[in-house]
Amino acid sequence: MTRLTGRALRVTIFIGENDVWHHRPLYTEIVHRAHKAGLAGASVFRGIEGFGASSLIHTSRLLSLSEDLPVTIVIVDDETRIRAFLPQLDELVTEGLVILDDCEVIRYVGRSEERAQ
Questions:
Q1: What pLDDT, in 10s, does the model give residues 94-111?
Q2: For the whole model, what pTM was predicted?
């Protein structure tokens, strides 16, 4: 299990729900690559409304516009691991936004074998 405390980097990726990589959702590809790279964790969040560089508003309020809602993937790990992962994001994210933030990890605890069952 990865241990993570103290100073870290958070990479946040903003893409569209319909973005794909070789016929699979792009967010799935990013999460699976982060896992394979041994990063501490990744989470995907689906937005209810937003716009990006194209200035087209995507919203879940109107059925005709409820396609391609915003999706955010957040990954936190130490700086070395995150920076080593950035070339993969450069390959995968052809439209969207990728940002880095310094952060401090206060608590990072997984489930124990007993609690997981």
A1: 999 999 999 999 988 887
A2: 0.84
